[in-house]
Write a structure and sequence with these properties.
The chain has 434 residues and is α/β, with parallel strands linked by helices. It contains 14 helices and 24 strands. The strands form 6 sheets. The chain has a 4-stranded mixed beta sheet with strand order 22-23-1-24, with helices on both faces. A 4-stranded mixed beta sheet has the order 2-15-17-16, covered by helices on one side. A hairpin with a 2-residue loop joins strand 8 and strand 9. Helix 1 packs parallel to helix 4 and helix 10 packs parallel to helix 12. It is globular, with a radius of gyration of 22 Å. The two termini are 28 Å apart. Bound molecules: ligand EPZ. The site of ligand EPZ has 24 residues, from helix 1, helix 5, helix 6 and helix 12.
């Protein structure tokens, strides 16, 4: 097990290149097996979640060739297994995208039931509702989701909840159903659009992705394609917040500024400077303390829930009192106790965090409770006086490629060291004294 050790106090300066979007790539890799032809996908982020899903795809018989760190060739013609076992689902929930892909292509699939996780119970009732609406039988027994269908027929599906996963899963199955499917109250995230564009590049007929009504005309089969994943909105947002928190000046390259509008608007509202270019944004922190504000997480284009811990960390340093309300997940404030140990003053009341801004943080040993909270604790360590040690960083490495390298490329002083390796820790601390 590794941990990050961070010497705080260095404003981030310079340029960073954003990797491909993890949450788009997970849906796209699952959809890639829906054809018997070869699919080439590039701009894949080299993160653990992607590597685990590729293992799961190989496990059922697909041919997976890593062309390079960010490019993969997949051929689904040799798939024999339709069952994804628990070992993959417990590593990444998104293995359940193989349900929609396998059901669409083979009319049957079996995936272990995903459990909850650190941010909430994460039910999948809307996924099941969509599959059943298309004519599939879905049974849940012995911890497995077992689905099969004589045939899949297009249907008019109204999602009770705006769900990224359910929208992607149903969109995949409906692509190869007979007839028309309408998904109402669909999620509109950039990664939904990317998966729809990918499926259309394979010959699917999907219109309206990115709006709350997606219309799909089923096709008999899909063909091979070459596709490049969109940049990661949340990785970009994390670096934007880090630049503002450290009072730095960072050019964040390979982004789609439109996807970052809710984040940019909040940063500007509290006094940071954001300059937009075609495929980059520059964030310049303010010399004086930033202001306070209220943030409520909402489905896209609202403020992203995956940026909630990061913006709360920034507001914990602002002048005045801010309120952050988490409307998507029921338990996404686990990082607050860790942040308070670094000197923040935050109280959680129901699904809101009341944040009294403080002048600064002091370094401490903290634990990453989940992926985005872990990234937020790293941002806090970049600002804190002295040293911060963040452990459980396997959560962070699920979704951030070369996180410490990218941060150090911007002038941070951060190193990944094995847990309990005092020698490595001391060596780092001696190196960065100053
Ligand atoms: C995706 O999770 C992302 N994961 C999450 O990112 C992200 O936080 C979330 O969307 C919201 O944007 C991936 O894309 C792999 P949902 P997902 O279905 O699809 C409820 C990260 O940090 N719900 O949109 O699981 C659910 O409980 C991760 O990269 C149902 O009630 O999220 C939640 O309250 C964390 N029934 C809300 O909907 C269902 O069948 C939104 O969940 C499905 C969801």
């Amino acid at each position: 097990m590794d941990q990050y050790v961070i010497k705080g106090g260095c404003p981030l300066q310079g340029e960073v290149v954003i990797s491909g979007a993890k949450n788009a790539a997970l849906g796209i890799l699952a959809a890639a097996i829906m054809t018997d032809e070869t699919v080439i996908i590039d701009n894949l982020p080299d993160v653990n979640d992607i590597n685990v899903l590729l293992q799961a795809i190989e496990e059922i018989g697909a041919i997976v060739e890593r062309v390079d760190r960010h490019t993969v060739k997949i051929n689904g013609s040799q798939i024999t297994g339709m069952s994804i076992d628990y070992e993959f689902i417990k590593k990444i929930r998104a293995s359940y995208y193989l349900l929609g892909a396998l059901l669409g292509k083979y009319r049957k699939a079996q995936v272990a039931l995903p459990g909850g996780c650190n941010i909430g119970s994460r039910p999948i009732d809307q996924h099941i509702k969509g599959f059943r609406a298309l004519g599939a039988q879905v049974k849940i027994e012995q911890g497995m989701i077992d689905t099969k269908a004589e045939k899949l027929v297009g249907s008019h599906i109204y999602m009770d909840v705006v769900s990224v996963g359910a929208t992607i899963n149903v969109m995949m199955a409906a692509s190869l159903a007979e007839g028309k499917t309408i998904i109402e109250n669909a999620a509109k995230e950039p990664h939904i659009v990317d998966v729809a564009n990918f499926l259309n590049s394979m010959g699917a007929n999907i219109k309206g992705a990115g709006t709350d009504v997606i219309r799909i005309k089923g096709v008999p089969s899909l063909h091979g394609t070459e596709y490049s994943i969109i940049p990661d909105q949340i990785e970009a947002g994390t670096f934007m917040v880090a630049a503002a928190a450290t009072k730095g000046d960072v050019l964040i390259k390979n982004v789609i500024p439109k996807h970052l509008e809710a984040i940019s608007a909040k940063l500007v509202e509290i006094g940071a400077k954001v300059v937009e270019y075609d495929d980059a944004v520059r964030v310049i922190g303010a010399k004086e303390r930033l202001g306070s504000t209220h943030v409520k997480t909402l489905p896209y284009p609202g403020f992203p829930t995956d940026m909630q811990p990061q913006i709360a960390t920034l507001l914990a340093l602002s002048e005045g009192t801010s309120i952050v309300t988490e409307s998507i997940f029921e338990n996404r404030f686990k990082y607050v106790a860790e942040l308070n140990r670094m000197g923040a003053s935050i109280t959680v009341e129901g699904n809101s965090a009341v944040i009294d801004g403080v002048e600064g943080f002091t370094g401490a040993s903290v634990s990453a409770p989940d992926l985005r909270a872990g990234a937020a604790l790293v941002v806090a360590g970049l600002v804190a006086e002295g040293y911060t040690i963040v452990d459980q960083i396997q959560y962070i490495e699920r979704g951030y490629e070369a996180f410490e390298d990218k941060m150090n490329g911007l002038g941070a002083k951060m190193k990944k060291v094995p847990v309990d390796d005092e020698k490595e820790l001391q060596k780092f601390m001696l190196q960065v004294i100053g």
